[in-house]
Sequence to fold (209 residues):
Amino acid sequence: MNFKESTILITGAGTGMGLEAAKWFSEQGSRVVMVARNESRLKDEAAKLKNASYIACDLSQQDQLHSLVENIKLNFRDLNLVFLNAGVATHYALLDNSQAYETSLNEMLTNFHPAVYLTHHLAPLLELKEDATFIITTSGVALAPDLSHPTYSATKAALHNYILGLRLVLERKKSSIKLYELMAPLVDLLFQRLFYRILRYHPAQLLSV
Ligand SMILES: NC(=O)c1ccc[n+]([C@@H]2O[C@H](COP(=O)([O-])OP(=O)(O)OC[C@H]3O[C@@H](n4cnc5c(N)ncnc54)[C@H](OP(=O)(O)O)[C@@H]3O)[C@@H](O)[C@H]2O)c1
Fold:
């Protein structure tokens, strides 16, 4: 892929892996469009990068998803790579949380539904480009549930299944769009530090068991 000629949308780009990806693509010469909810953090981080813009958007809100797509179609028609990476995870135990339903709704609306919306609405724009690519972040918990993040695991399982289906359809349509699933391991970021604080395990210990 010619990163110098690429325009890349990254969701969850205010912190963590999304922010690191934005820095890396910007260093390669790509034009980066950073998306998250916290506008002041996005503004600060985008200002440190070359060729970076930002759009504040709560992906769990359908009207904001709609505005995001309209903004992209109007201002970033060169878009060729979409990295769907935003996610939330809630730590709790099944059958031990009266808010489990509400928690799972928020996780599903953030981790799963935006991927459905954005792949459907941005695929026609990507289809016209060379090097058209979707990258979607899931997790190993898509395959085996993490009982300390039970409904988060289920959202990643749904996303993993959606990616498998979407890939088959792209192949059958002989689409030029590439689709990658980033099944991330534990990464040394905020999410992992939370994991450590709660479970008292360091990832190095987890890897050795
Ligand atoms: N870290 C790990 O060990 C690990 C392992 C496997 C998979 N993953 C996955 O990797 C991805 C990134 O994780 P991370 O560790 O980098 O997490 P992170 O630092 O918490 O980043 C999550 C990003 O998503 C954004 N976000 C959350 N809810 C949003 C919403 N409703 N609308 C728009 N943006 C939203 C957050 O920004 P705002 O709060 O400003 O919206 C933030 O920038 C997630 O999908 C996560 O599930 C992480």
Q: What stands out?
A: The pocket of NAP is lined by residues 11-12, 14-18, 36-38, 41, 57-60, 85-89, 110, 137, 139, 184, 186-187, 189-192 (CB under 6 Å). The CA atoms of residues 31 and 183 lie 25 Å apart. The chain has one domain: 3-208.
